[in-house]
Structures are given as C-alpha cells and as structure tokens.
Design a protein that fits this description.
With about 240 residues, the protein is of the alpha/beta class. The strands form three sheets. Strands 7-2-8-1-9 form a five-stranded parallel sheet. A four-stranded mixed sheet has the order 3-6-4-5, with helices on both faces. The protein has a two-stranded antiparallel sheet with strand order 10-11. The structure holds D-malate.
Length: about 240
C-alpha cells in the first residue's frame, strides 16, 4: 500500500486521487471541529467554499435545524452562529442539527477532493481510527493537507505524520511511503519527544495571539475519539 502526503490541497489534480483514499486534514482547526461535530451527534456537516454559499444553504434548509459555522483569518464570521473553536461544537449546539461550515482553507480543501475514491476526515484526535478505516478500504492512501493560503502549514504536516505513523503500525504488510511522508513522520517523532516546538510556526502563533491556546491543545491531542467522518456527495456524516 502506497502512502503519500500532499502538503497543500491546491496542488491536487483529479487523476492524483481518483483511485485512492484521501484523508483530508486541516488539524488547526476545521477538520478537528468537523470530527467533534459528528461525534457530538450532528446530522450532517456541509462544507461550503465561501460564507455566501454557507448562508444561502442555511437559508434553504431553514434556520431552526441549522448551525451556521465559520471563520475568516481564524475569527468568527459576523452573523454566523459559531466560529471555528472545537468547544463551540458541543452536543448542546449541534446534536440532531445540520452544521453548514465555511473556513478559510479547510472547507475548500475538502470540496476539492470529490474525485477521490473515498474521502475521510482526519485529525490527530481521531488519528488511529482514521488510519484503521483507510487501511481497511485497501486503496493507496493520500493525506491531503489544507495548508494556509496556498502555503505549507507545519501543523498539518505534524498531523499527517501522526496519521502516517498509525497507518504504518496498522498495515499488516507494511507501507510504501513517499519521501514527504517520511519527513512528516520525522517531524512527528521530534514533536513527540519534545524537540519540535510548533508554537513558533505561523498558524499556531496566529491562534495563540487570538487566545486560542486551548484549541491547539485539543486539536493536537491524539486518539480521543473513534469517529471517522466520511465526505460523500457534498456532505459529511
Ligand atoms: C482554516 O480553514 O484555514 C482553519 O481552520 C483556520 C482556523 O484555524 O480557524
């Protein structure tokens, strides 16, 4: 089984992913929020590319059953119900409701994966569960990172390494890892041993400056849920 990491979703072409299982990752913070929402009983999560599309979808579904969620530059959108902090996706808020979410990079990244055989939503909070599901599907695996405004984001590479390490552990016949996958695993190993401080990297530093340290701590917690959301026909369940 081959395993590759694409560090920024905009570099993905349909033919790269058409015969593979994609694990979409925006660890800080949108895929961590989506996993949390599904785990807390959301009926479905609909990723919208932009706030206008999100508001239009919410209007069509009727506000009573909908939670309108999203951010730009990590700040909650005006007139939206919630932003992009995992703590906002509690059962109280999302259970039995549809979450329509638009984030700066993460939701566009998920959208762009429609051509893949299967699309799983991954993070560190579900890393072993998403790895197990991907291995069971039996296809080659591509971990696609959202990145930030077209740039590589170190937090996503860390999460890719964390998931790739779990895939390696769970694959009976071993994996054929690309060089970038190995680099992500090296970053992850350094981070595990306290040698890589991600707080200095751009997206982490921005979140810290806005007071979101607790979100980072949560999103970097490993294996706290077995929930593996699947993206299919425009909807995540
Ligand atoms: C994104 O989609 O770029 C992120 O989830 C941004 C954030 O941390 O709010």
């Amino acid at each position: 089984m081959k395993i590759d990491v694409i560090p920024v979703y905009g570099r993905v072409l349909s033919h790269h992913i058409s015969s593979s299982t994609v694990i979409a990752v925006d660890v800080l913070r949108s895929t961590s929020c989506i996993i949390t929402a599904v785990g807390n009983g959301a009926n479905r999560v609909v990723p919208a590319i932009d706030p206008g599309e999100a508001a239009m979808l919410a209007g069509r579904l009727g506000h009573a059953d909908v939670v309108l969620a999203g951010e730009r530059d990590a700040v909650k959108l005006p007139d939206f119900d919630i932003g992009n902090s995992p703590s906002e996706y509690s059962a109280n808020t999302v259970k039995d409701r549809s979450v329509i979410i638009s984030t700066t990079n993460g939701t566009a990244a998920i959208h762009g994966m429609s051509a893949a055989k299967d699309v799983l939503i991954g993070g560190m909070i579900n890393r072993s569960a998403v790895a197990k599901r991907a291995v069971e599907l039996g296809n080659d695996i591509i971990i696609v990172c959202a990145g930030t405004y077209g740039q590589i984001s170190a937090d996503d590479l860390l999460a890719a390494g964390s998931i790739a390490e779990a895939i390696n552990r769970l694959s009976p016949s071993g994996i054929d890892a690309s060089d970038i996958t190995m680099v992500c695993c090296m970053l992850y190993a350094d981070w595990k041993q306290g040698r890589a401080d991600l707080s200095v990297t751009k997206h982490c530093a921005r979140l810290i400056s806005l007071g979101f340290e607790e979100d980072i701590r949560y999103c970097f917690s490993e294996d706290i849920t077995d929930v593996v959301p699947v993206y299919e026909n425009g909807v995540i369940r």
